[in-house]
């Protein structure tokens, strides 16, 4: 592929050409049969946009706020691990692109640059994604370091008491590079055995499978930062999250990499939004490849979306420039979608702008 990519999906092909198979499989793969991985994208295709005509759309405002922070568009960078496997500049390049595009980057605990190095590289608005380890003191130290280095929120990932079975990584015997955030706290080299990948060895040896709702109180006690809970997929869990006073929720199935046959995130977004009732912001990730996808998520109640794989494809293909171009592509597509749908600002995107499969079923019954 010699031409410049014209959409995010074409960056995926460039990434495939640029990366060793082990690393490409790591970034693109999902759990087991990969049903959820595929459904994350397919579910967007079943949602129809219902445009409004003859509105004055000469000027389009894509800006919004998340937890009070102003960003240029309702698109944030999802926590994506091991970015140095995609490009030597890894998370540094991604943070700089986020800064250039005036949006928020969520840095993964499993970053290949330390949270201090990422904080020092630019002035991007940064959140820190947290896994809770068996040794709670390690998690507490990570939270303190994030707070001391200007990170603005903690994104607690709650869907990984164990690692999902990612069979491509098992076959490839994925080798995990040293995790800079854990240097001096945990062993930073984990080698796969005959049954799994290095990442699976890392997870099984370190993650706290006992962490539960009651432990959110502990996390709140060790930081003044707002806490977003990432991994909500049901009304019931959304209500429980409100009861423990989280500051926001991310509807996420870990990109289809944890529990296979869990629902596509866009298919349950509205259920979570309804349960939350506007009390805290609701964000969503998973399967977002087009500006139309962002528009649909906003119409169903998301305050913003997070993109992960698309960013890594840009990073693998063209480094910082590639991440910047991916974000700009999504911004341009969203702006066009809004103009063609009669929306001058993200606040004007409403539920009436989309028709879901459920809506269609209701219509057929009338």
User: What's the assembly state of these chains?
Assistant: single chain
Beta content comes to 5-15%
Write down the secondary-structure element order. HHHEEEEHEHEHEHHHEHEHEHEHEH
Largest sheet: 8 strands, parallel
Mean pLDDT: 93
Helix fraction bin? 40-55%
- Distance N to C terminus: 49 Å
Cα-atom Rg, whole angstroms?
20 Å
In order across it, which strands form the biggest sheet? Answer: 4-11-10-9-8-7-6-5
The beta-strand count equals 12
Q: Would you tell me the structural class of the helices and strands?
A: alpha/beta
- Uncertain ranges: none
Report on the structure:
With 366 residues, this protein is an alpha/beta fold. Helix content is 42%, strand content 12%. The chain is built from 14 helices and twelve strands. The chain has helices spanning 8-18, 21-28, 35-45, 90-100, 115-121, 136-148, 167-172, 198-206, 216-221, 235-243, 265-276, 291-299, 309-341, 357-365; strands spanning 48-49, 64-66, 69-71, 75-77, 104-107, 125-130, 154-157, 227-232, 248-251, 282-285, 304-307, 354-355. The strands form three sheets. The chain has an eight-stranded parallel β-sheet. Helix 1 runs antiparallel to helix 13. The radius of gyration is 20 Å and the shape is globular. The N and C termini lie far apart (49 Å). The relative contact order is 0.20. The model has no long low-confidence stretch (mean pLDDT 93).
Core attributes:
two-stranded antiparallel ribbon; 42% helix; globular; 366 residues; peroxisome; (S)-2-hydroxy-acid oxidase activity; FMN; alpha/beta; eight-stranded parallel β-sheet; oxidoreductase; EC 1.1.3.15
């Amino acid at each position: 592929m010699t031409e410049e990519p014209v959409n995010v999906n074409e960056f995926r092909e460039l990434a495939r050409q640029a990366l060793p198979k082990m690393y490409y499989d790591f970034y693109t793969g999902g759990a087991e049969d990969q049903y959820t991985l595929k459904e994350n994208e397919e579910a967007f295709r079943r949602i129809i946009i219902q445009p409004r005509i003859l509105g004055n759309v000469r000027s389009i405002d894509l800006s919004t706020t998340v937890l009070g922070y102003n960003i240029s568009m309702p698109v944030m960078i999802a926590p994506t691990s091991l970015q140095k496997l995609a490009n030597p500049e890894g998370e540094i390049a991604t943070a700089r692109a986020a800064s250039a595009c005036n949006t928020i980057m969520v840095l993964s605990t499993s970053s290949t640059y330390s949270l201090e190095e990422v904080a020092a590289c630019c002035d991007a608005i940064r959140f820190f994604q947290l896994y809770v380890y068996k040794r709670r003191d390690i998690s507490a130290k990570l939270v303190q370091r994030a707070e001391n280095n200007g990170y603005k929120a903690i994104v607690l990932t709650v869907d990984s008491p164990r690692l999902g079975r990612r069979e491509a990584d098992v076959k490839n015997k994925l080798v995990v590079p040293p995790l800079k955030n854990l240097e001096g706290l945990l062993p930073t080299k984990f080698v796969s055995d005959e049954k799994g990948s290095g990442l699976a060895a890392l997870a099984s040896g370190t993650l706290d499978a006992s962490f539960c709702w009651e432990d959110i109180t502990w996390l709140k006690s060790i930081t003044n930062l707002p806490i977003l809970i990432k991994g909500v997929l049901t009304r019931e869990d959304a209500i429980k999250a409100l009861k423990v006073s989280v500051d926001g929720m991310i509807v996420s199935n870990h990109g289809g990499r944890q529990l296979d046959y869990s629902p596509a995130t866009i298919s349950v977004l509205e259920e979570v939004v309804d349960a939350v009732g506007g009390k805290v912001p609701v964000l969503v990730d998973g399967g977002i490849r087009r500006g139309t996808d962002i528009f649909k998520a906003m119409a169903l109640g998301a305050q913003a979306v997070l993109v992960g794989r698309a960013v890594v494809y840009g990073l693998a293909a063209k480094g910082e420039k590639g991440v910047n171009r991916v974000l700009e592509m999504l911004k341009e597509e969203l702006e066009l979608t809004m103009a063609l749908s009669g929306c001058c600002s993200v606040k004007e995107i409403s539920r009436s702008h989309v028709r879901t499969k459920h809506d269609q079923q209701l219509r057929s019954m009338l």
